[in-house]
């Protein structure tokens, strides 16, 4: 840990950013210095991603200023940030799948000879960079498309290092890596720190952060809460800072009641190597949460139950009868009546240029038509009823759904499925990127639906939501359900601990916090 | 024809209406220019005589029927390059079979080709551009094998001739057929589950699939309908020229696509009104007839034809930019 | 991943499309020569080369927009336009001929450039843009040559449509083609040499420019390409411009081969459609991002050699379309079988 100079390499002051009505970052002051590894901590939606997007030029802040090495800077695009020495390894891969590894690594500034790209030099460069992170086994000739995810992530890191950064940002850049890779990356990062780089490190894995970082900053609800040297705070205190003390009263009250007889039963459900022997049951009137870190198989589980995945093994029973659907048409059919609120409303939930009415009716057209014809009368009644029930704020049902705010768009997606009168409702992170008011309405609605007899399976990346809404929470890790929490046992500590696959009992910090 | 000249009810134009209004205005401009030309050169108003207009629309009917099918396929985000030889094959098989089964045979050939296209695109997910191109080549080969490469000697049946060239109450039958097809397509697109699904697929196939729509079936059906309409056009065209001939469909593919796009449909699928396609067909047919009245050489026609398509699309674009 | 996968094996795997196209071509061509009464002779090779070059050039022209994820429906028309232009200009003194050739290529480039500008700045889809500009190109062609005719310098025509020895003889090179060292290569058709030169001097270097790579990047992931700061707009315009150049070379050769200009609309559309087929047969993905112009050249050669075979077996030449279509269907359907292995149906829509 070399504190070479006191002056920070990067400084942000009073930086704010809003997305529509949602406040992503609010008056943030933040600084990090050269020669250090600086961890950024926070729950999902705390503002970490927005922070690094601003720093790396992907989005522009609404207000505030940024200084790099004492100079005022403003990056209008990622290329400008790269030119200034700020390089980010993104979670979503920025590689071009049809180009070779060597091409990708040198994409922004390939070595040239007489104006032409020098393939040999480029290859040498790729080999050197890959070797420096222990990836000698990746042939730079290979296409990125043909690499497994963990290798792609290493290529992404090599690409970033090739840009000779002064400030390197890693956003969950190790999430898909093998343990051996992670060890190598640690060594590389420590070496880069010795060389005087500043490294911003975002990870959900607490032990990684403890092993690596010198300093840590905690973010919550778009605000910078505290920055402290690593070791100055106990594990428990950090978790407490991340959670905050405010108790949210925005959830409908939960009534403890006897566990109902199962409506949906899932037994030993497996798919590829993404789902491993998942057992789960869902009763009428129950809201069951799916927890865990992103990408542990929650989305795949929901898709499997909705008939989207091919080659699913295991059983799915509804009312005790085998009911694994083979397509969404099948899933929403009379025998099953399953609904899925998909992950990405813009690409999976809505036909954005089409009207609100058309979107609302898109899942229940069969019920709204006589013969092949859509009954305009029935449609108008159903649309008006859906808009009223969910209090969707619209101009006219004939407006394109794209004109609505994010929250109202999501309401349209939910309303469209409620129009099918589903018995089983699967939700994939339905409140992501939505304003607080709409969130609350959705929570209330879920409870009303459950009380009316629906069984609800609810994946969320927001622990608060799981605690506030669910009767039970199944926490997934690596494609399997690791823990099922029920009633008062659903606490933030328990959720985080099982999501990180840490044993609660043996973690003194967590005991301290509770 | 009422559908084509439909006036917008309100001043507030939807994004789908704008191209239709601009194209309609262009049609009127064409009529004015053409009439001015004939007035000056010959002192007549040929273009405005009902008989001349009906004759032009009769010719337009064949293109209109092909374009109606093409529109279904374009709306789902695909394209059908096989209509040229689907049309010719239907015409040839219809005249070969002859008698009362001539027309059903022609339609069945078109339907069958469309089904093959649809299955390839929906189930194998081969890009429609190349799949239909290959099917076109196959159909052409089959027809050459069938006819030996010469114009078939068989003639169109009386019913085919009547439907294509006959007149009822002074109005060509072909126009009635086109109007009939148009009403069906317009109703299907606007009022049926099938039509709604077509737009949904064109906008976002994944969302349509996850909404539990029968996306694959609808893709197959859209191609099948396109094939069958090409078949119908083939049957009519054979009736009009009293027999089928080699390459009779070649002149219909690109103009059909152009008509659909001039009518405001997005070539990537998902948006566009059927009335627009009708307007597009009328525009192309009228442009051709004005140019031939002016005795414009083929060179000038082609250049003007291309320039009109580009200009129209740029005009639609700029309109959209202003809207925000 | 077992450690040392040999480079050549990786390259082969990445170019299975190209490799199968070459294999298919060689098989057909061998078959043809075996059954041809004068098989394996220079005159046959020369004749074949002359008939194949124009389509090969147009197929290369089509490849570049396709790599970018677009399509160019004007390549056949631009070829025809330049063919007509060449029938006026490529005649006279050597200087005039040189000027004519340069003008022809420039005309193709300018037309492609205009296509690119409409696509980039007018934001109109490539397929529609080129549908319309294709009509304009045909119009210009008809204007230049209302009836087939015109003339191309006879020496040039003779020299480029025969073997290298005839080329040398015509222009008095290498002792009139009698030089001893020249004999081992004297039998090669001049047209084939021209094609190889075009590939080596234009395509190969272009692929290694930043613009060339950007074209692949745009076809592979346009968003990622933009985020990486690549010159996306410039690459699109360059792609269409180069496409115009290749189409012009095709038209130029057609003029030299036929010694005339012909504004033939059906021929233009046939070339355009065949160019798309050639691109696909050559292993280039219609979705963009992978493939090469060399593959398309072999795709074009496959299409041509099919018709050669039809000729020697005296089958009506028009029937070849059936075989071409079936081969194309088989090729794309084979690729389509991959769909059956997709386990998450949502991935089908991406």
Automatic annotation (TrEMBL), chain B:
Stored Pfam families? BPD_transp_2
UniProt keyword annotation of Transmembrane helix present:
yes
**Superkingdom of origin organism:** Bacteria
Q: Which residues cross the membrane?
A: 20-48, 60-81, 101-124, 131-151, 171-189, 218-240, 252-269, 274-293, 299-316
Q: How does it sit in the membrane?
A: Multi-pass membrane protein
Q: Which GO terms describe its cellular component?
A: plasma membrane
Question: Any idea which GO molecular function terms this record carries?
Answer: transmembrane transporter activity
* Alphabetical keyword list: Cell membrane, Membrane, Transmembrane, Transmembrane helix
Q: Does the keyword NAD apply?
A: no
State where the protein is found: Cell membrane
Q: Which InterPro entries match?
A: ABC_transp_permease
Q: What is this protein called?
A: ABC transporter permease
To which species is this protein native?
Answer: Alsobacter metallidurans
TrEMBL record, chain C:
Gene Ontology CC: plasma membrane
* Localization (cell): Cell membrane
Provide the topology term for how it sits in the membrane. Answer: Multi-pass membrane protein
InterPro entries xrefs: ABC_transp_permease
Its principal location?
membrane
An example Gene Ontology molecular-function term: transmembrane transporter activity
Q: Which UniProt keywords apply?
A: Cell membrane, Membrane, Transmembrane, Transmembrane helix
Taxonomic superkingdom: Bacteria
Question: This protein is called what?
Answer: Sugar ABC transporter permease
Q: Name one Pfam family in it.
A: BPD_transp_2
Q: Does the keyword Transmembrane apply?
A: yes
Task: Mark the transmembrane ranges.
Answer: 12-32, 52-85, 97-121, 127-144, 186-206, 237-256, 268-287, 318-340
Organism expressing this protein natively:
Alsobacter metallidurans
């Amino acid at each position: 840990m070399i504190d070479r100079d006191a002056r920070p390499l990067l400084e942000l002051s009073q930086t704010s950013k809003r997305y529509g009505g949602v406040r992503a970052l609010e008056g943030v002051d933040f600084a990090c210095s050269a020669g250090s590894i600086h961890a950024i901590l926070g729950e999902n939606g705390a503002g970490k991603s927005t922070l690094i997007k601003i720093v790396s030029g992907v989005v522009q802040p609404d207000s505030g200023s940024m200084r790099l090495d004492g100079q005022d800077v403003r990056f209008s695009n990622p290329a400008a940030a790269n030119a200034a020495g700020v390089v980010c390894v993104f979670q979503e891969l920025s590689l071009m799948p049809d180009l070779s590894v060597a091409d990708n690594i040198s994409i922004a500034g390939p070595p040239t000879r007489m104006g032409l790209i020098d393939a040999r030099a480029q290859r040498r460069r790729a080999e050197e960079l890959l070797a420096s992170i222990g990836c000698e086994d990746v042939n730079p000739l290979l296409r990125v498309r043909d690499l497994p995810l963990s290798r792609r992530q290493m290529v992404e890191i090599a690409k970033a290092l090739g840009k000779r950064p002064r400030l390197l940002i890693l956003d969950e850049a190790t999430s898909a890596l093998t343990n051996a890779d992670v060890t190598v990356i640690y060594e590389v990062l420590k070496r880069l720190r010795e060389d005087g780089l500043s490294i911003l490190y975002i990870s959900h894995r607490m032990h990684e952060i403890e092993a690596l970082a010198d300093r840590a900053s905690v973010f919550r609800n778009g605000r910078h809460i505290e920055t402290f040297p690593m070791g100055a705070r106990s594990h428990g205190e950090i978790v407490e800072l991340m959670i905050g003390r405010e108790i949210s009263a925005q959830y409908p009250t939960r009534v403890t009641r006897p566990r109902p007889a199962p409506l949906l039963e899932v037994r030993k459900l497996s798919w590829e190597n993404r789902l491993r022997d998942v057992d789960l049951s869902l009763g009428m009137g129950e809201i069951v949460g799916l927890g865990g870190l992103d990408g542990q198989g929650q989305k795949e589980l929901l898709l499997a139950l909705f008939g989207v995945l091919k080659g699913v093994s295991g059983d799915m029973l509804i009312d005790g009868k085998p009911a694994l659907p083979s397509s969404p048409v099948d899933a929403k059919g009379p025998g099953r009546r399953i609904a899925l609120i998909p992950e990405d409303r813009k690409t999976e939930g809505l036909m954005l240029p089409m009207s609100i009415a058309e979107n609302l009716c898109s899942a229940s057209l069969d019920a709204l038509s006589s013969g092949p014809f859509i009954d305009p009368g029935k449609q108008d009644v159903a649309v008006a009823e859906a808009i009223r029930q969910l209090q969707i704020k619209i101009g006219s049902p004939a407006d394109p759904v794209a004109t609505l705010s994010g929250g109202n768009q999501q309401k349209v997606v939910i309303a469209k499925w409620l129009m099918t009168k589903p018995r089983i409702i699967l939700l994939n992170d339905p409140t992501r990127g939505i304003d607080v008011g709409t969130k609350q309405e959705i929570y209330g609605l879920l409870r009303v639906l459950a009380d009316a007899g629906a069984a609800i399976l609810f994946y969320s990346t927001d622990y608060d939501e799981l605690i506030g809404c669910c009767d039970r929470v199944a926490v997934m890790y690596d494609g399997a359900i690791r823990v099922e929490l029920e009633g008062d046992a659903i606490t933030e500590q328990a959720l985080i601990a099982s999501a990180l696959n840490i044993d609660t009992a043996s973690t003194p910090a967590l005991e301290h916090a509770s | 024809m009422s559908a084509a000249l439909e006036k917008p009810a309100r001043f507030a134009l939807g994004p789908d209406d704008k191209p239709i209004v601009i194209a309609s205005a262009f049609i009127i401009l064409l009529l004015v220019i053409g009439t001015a030309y004939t007035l000056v050169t010959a002192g007549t108003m040929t273009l405005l005589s009902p008989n001349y207009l009906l004759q032009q629309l009769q010719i337009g009917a064949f293109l209109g029927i092909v374009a109606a099918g093409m529109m279904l396929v374009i709306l789902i985000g695909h394209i059908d390059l096989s209509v040229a030889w689907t049309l010719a094959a239907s015409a040839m098989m219809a005249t070969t079979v002859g008698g009362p089964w001539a027309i059903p045979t022609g339609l069945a050939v078109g339907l069958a080709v469309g089904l093959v296209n649809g299955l390839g695109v929906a189930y194998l997910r081969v890009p429609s551009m190349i799949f239909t191109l290959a099917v076109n080549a196959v159909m052409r080969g089959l027809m050459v094998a069938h006819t030996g490469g010469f114009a078939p000697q068989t003639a169109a049946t009386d019913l085919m001739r009547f439907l294509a060239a006959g007149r009822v109450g002074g109005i060509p039958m072909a126009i009635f057929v086109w109007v009939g097809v148009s009403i069906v397509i317009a109703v299907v697109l606007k009022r049926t589950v099938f039509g709604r699904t077509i737009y949904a697929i064109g906008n976002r196939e994944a969302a349509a699939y996850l909404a539990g729509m029968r996306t694959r079936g609808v893709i197959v059906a859209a191609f099948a309908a396109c094939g069958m309409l090409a078949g119908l056009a083939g049957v009519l065209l054979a009736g009009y020229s009293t027999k089928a001939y080699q390459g009779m469909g070649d002149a219909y593919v690109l103009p059909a696509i152009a008509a659909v796009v001039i009518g405001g449909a997005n070539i990537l699928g998902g948006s566009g009104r059927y009335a627009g396609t009708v307007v597009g067909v009328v525009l192309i047919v009228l442009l051709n007839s004005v140019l031939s009245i002016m005795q414009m050489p083929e060179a000038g026609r082609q250049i003007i034809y291309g320039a009109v398509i580009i200009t129209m699309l740029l005009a639609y674009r700029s309109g959209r930019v202003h809207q925000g | 991943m077992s450690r040392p996968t040999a480079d050549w094996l990786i390259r082969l795997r990445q170019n299975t499309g190209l490799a199968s196209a070459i294999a298919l071509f060689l098989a057909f061509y061998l078959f043809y020569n075996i059954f041809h009464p004068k098989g394996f002779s220079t005159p046959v090779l020369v004749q074949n080369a002359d008939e194949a070059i124009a389509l090969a050039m147009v197929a290369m022209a089509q490849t570049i927009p396709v790599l970018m994820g677009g399509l160019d429906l004007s390549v056949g028309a631009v070829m025809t336009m330049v063919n007509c232009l060449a029938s006026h200009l490529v005649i006279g003194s050597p200087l005039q001929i040189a000027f004519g050739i340069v003008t022809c290529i420039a005309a193709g480039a300018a037309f492609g450039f205009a296509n690119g500008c409409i696509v980039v700045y007018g934001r109109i889809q490539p397929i529609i843009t080129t549908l319309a500009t294709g009509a304009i190109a045909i119009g210009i062609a008809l204007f230049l040559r209302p009836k087939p005719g015109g003339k191309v310098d006879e020496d040039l025509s003779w020299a480029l449509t025969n073997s290298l020895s005839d080329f040398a003889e015509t222009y008095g090179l290498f002792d009139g083609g009698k030089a001893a060292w020249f004999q081992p290569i004297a039998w090669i058709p001049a047209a084939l040499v021209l094609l190889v030169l075009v590939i080596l001097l234009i395509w190969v270097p272009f692929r290694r420019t930043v613009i060339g790579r950007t074209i692949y990047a745009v076809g592979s992931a346009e968003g990622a390409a933009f985020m990486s700061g690549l010159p996306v707009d410039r690459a699109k315009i360059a792609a269409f411009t180069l496409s115009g150049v290749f189409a012009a070379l095709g038209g130029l050769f057609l003029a030299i081969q036929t010694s005339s200009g012909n504004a033939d609309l059906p021929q233009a559309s046939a070339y355009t459609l065949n160019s798309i087929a050639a691109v696909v047969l050559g292993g280039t993905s219609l979705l963009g991002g992978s493939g090469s112009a060399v593959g398309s050249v072999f795709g074009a050669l496959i299409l041509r050699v099919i018709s050669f075979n039809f000729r020697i077996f005296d089958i009506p030449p028009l029937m070849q379309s059936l075989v071409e279509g079936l081969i194309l269907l088989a090729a794309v359907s084979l690729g389509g079988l991959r769909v059956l292995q997709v386990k998450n149906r949502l991935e089908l829509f991406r």
